Amino acid sequence: MSDNVSSEEIRRRIRDGFYRTLQRDATKNDLWKYFWGIEKAASSNEAGGSVEGQSCATTTEIPYVQCNRCTKVLSYDKVKGGTSHLRRHATTCQSTELSSTTTPISSFFKSSTVPLTVKQDITLKCAEFACRDLRPFETVAGDGFVALAQALISVGVKYGQVSAKDMLPHPSTVSRKIADVAANVKQNMVMPEILNCLNKWGGGITTDMWTESYRQLSYITVTVHYITAEWKLVERVIATREFDPDLRHTAVNIQEVVTNILSSGSTRLKPFS
Fold this sequence. Notes:
The chain is about 35% helix and about 20% strand. It is of the alpha+beta class. A four-stranded antiparallel β-sheet has the order 1-2-3-4, covered by helices on one side. A hairpin with a 5-residue loop joins β3 and β4. It is elongated and about 85 Å long.
């Protein structure tokens, strides 16, 4: 079929999945920060789309691009070139600014009014996330989740529409980072707060001991309890260590282990008398 079709027909095929958009390389031409390329599956049936579950061997890019702000389709042949009409559109497009080759940092902090329908859709996605992944409702209110969501939004602002699957790392990649992140949070955030509160108002230390049934190894967990300046009671797990199997669980032995944990380089808490 000829590619000389109306822009509305191309938009319909994008919506129906017969065509798909792709991100162009903006390192050579800043114009491609504002337009997506459009491609179709060479082996797909354009009248009825590709067969579900059947992958397409090759793809063919068509001589059109789509504005990633207003979704308008404009002609562009990368062989023949010619982008002046694209720049004119980008300049006049309501949400696009081409006066600078880089996005002003202030735009990442400017609050925008989001339509109620969009917020309702996000609420639905949050509910689906909690349901499908069996996550607590409070997950979406956590500082870490909010920071992740904001980072993803900022990526979209800077680079346009991108695939979430391409952005999110594999779980094994996250697992390799978790030890370093946890150590950094403990050293730079948790321990300074604990030391500050304990030095001002004091606190308490509790222990929990148990033996796992498979190898009969004993463990001890040390938790510190303190009150913040906002009068909020906080409990923080300081460490979980294996308890020497040759030691009896006497008060003297437990005190010695707890003292060693509190005096360790990663904790640096003064042992309680």
